[in-house]
Specification:
The protein is an alpha+beta fold. The protein folds into three domains: 145 residues, GIY-YIG endonuclease (3-Layer(aba) Sandwich); 94 residues, Beta Barrel (At1g16640 B3 domain); 135 residues, Leucine Aminopeptidase, subunit E, domain 1, CATH 3.40.220. It is built from 13 helices and 20 strands. The strands form four sheets. Strands 8-13-14-10-11-12-9 form a seven-stranded mixed beta sheet.
């Protein structure tokens, strides 16, 4: 095992029995492709393999092998036998950082190292010695064919959050994590893999819990993160973060929104006072809440009485889907919970997309005013709006976000 640690392998997870069923837990590298991995028991390397698919998907092959996957089935049996004896089986991993080249050609670390590691270390489950039958060897043909097999997608994100891209983040390549999301991430000093946009290969950063007085994480991404911020986003953009494990995240930037319009949709961000004289040029989309919330403000301007407004809001919230006062008033609303109760940009995005489809089918508004103030517009709301507009490609002439 020490020989693996010396060349950069690090603990990535472990195997366990959950209610009698074999399962695994990965703390890092779950979505990493082209990765070397090893199974280690009591300091002895039992098996070395490579994964061209995400590591979590490769582990799933061992957790639940298909009938024809002989090496998967063999290692499933081997791992289970050790766990039932009370031994621990660790998963070590060595990702390809993309830095190895021969001339202009990238060298695949996993492909280059696997055979030599097996030759030198001679792990018993790879086809070395056979002991008492707990780990019978695999043939080279079985091992070579089995490494490419996959069963199911990698595990989904365990949580997420958004943050506003501050000027210092944009210039220096770091960002702070809020109190509500800080529990999702690892310990101070741990290495963090960061997937940027749809890039299949991550950059590596560090979790710093000493920079902020309340010990919330500061994610240090360096030049790689700075360059992505500057290429993919603008200052004050809302960046969404999918947390795949405590040491693995994916960042996504929304489509760039200019502050004063100029895009194909003429998207703008403005204040209520600035847009109020033009309010009747727009169809308003807000959230279903009475009182001093935006719904009441806009609906009453069209003569909607309090009882009608209350019944409308109750129906939207009870059904859990967008509703509209059209044709009595050019005002629609999404359920209150999508804005007030949970900071979930994906759930709110889906509600906005549903409205956009309804608009194209029946309402036919060409200008849309989005007012989700509570009393300010939360960052996740801006993300949801941007994602919805990008996904639905609505036939609109103008979109205004009230801030």
């Amino acid at each position: 095992m020490n020989r693996l640690l010396e060349i950069g392998f690090a603990p990535a997870g472990h195997w366990l029995l959950d209610g009698g069923a074999l399962d695994y837990a990965l703390a890092r590298h779950s979505t990493q492709r082209n990765i070397l991995y090893a199974f280690v028991c009591d300091g002895q390397v039992m098996y070395v393999g490579k994964a061209v698919q995400p590591l979590a998907r490769r582990m799933t092959g061992y957790r639940r092998p298909a009938p024809m996957q002989s090496v998967n089935a063999r290692n499933h049996k081997n791992i289970r036998a050790l766990l039932e004896r009370g031994s621990a089986v660790e998963i070590l991993a060595l990702p390809d950082n993309g830095l190895l080249h021969y001339g202009q050609f990238h060298l695949n670390l996993a492909a280059a190292l696997e055979d030599d590691l097996i030759r030198v270390i001679d792990p018993p489950w790879n086809g070395g010695q056979v002991d008492d039958g707990i780990h019978p060897p695999a043939t080279p043909e079985e091992r070579a064919s089995d490494e490419g097999e996959g069963l199911e997608p990698a595990a989904p994100a365990v949580g997420g959050f958004t943050f506003i891209l501050q000027p210092t983040y944009f210039a220096q390549g770091f960002f702070n994590v809020g109190v509500a999301a800080q529990r999702l991430l690892g310990q101070d000093g741990e290495t963090l893999e960061m997937f940027l946009g749809d890039d299949p290969q991550p950059i590596l950063g560090t979790i710093n819990r000493r920079a902020n007085a309340n010990a919330t994480p500061r994610i240090m991404g360096g030049l790689g993160l700075r360059d992505w911020f500057q290429a993919a986003a603008t200052v004050s953009a809302s960046i969404s973060v999918e947390v795949q494990s405590p040491t693995s995240i994916r960042l996504r930037a929304p489509p760039r929104l200019p502050q004063t319009g100029g895009s194909a949709l003429g998207i703008a961000r403005t204040t209520q006072d600035a847009i109020w004289p033009r309010r009747k040029e727009f169809h308003v989309l807000t959230y279903a809440e009475g009182g001093l919330a935006p719904l009441s403000l806009y609906a009453r301007a069209y003569g909607i009485d309090g009882t009608t407004l209350g019944d409308f809001a109750d129906d939207v919230n009870r059904l859990g889907e967008p509703g509209s006062l059209h044709p009595r008033a050019p005002v629609s609303a999404v359920p209150r919970a999508r804005v007030r109760a949970a900071e979930d940009p994906i759930a709110l995005r889906d509600q906005i997309i549903a409205f956009l489809h309804a608009n194209e089918a029946t309402i036919h508004a060409s200008r849309l005013l989005l007012d989700f103030r509570t009393p300010a517009v939360a960052p996740f709301v801006v993300t949801a709006i941007e994602l919805a507009l990008a996904a639905a490609a609505p036939l609109l002439d103008e979109v205004v976000i009230v801030e």
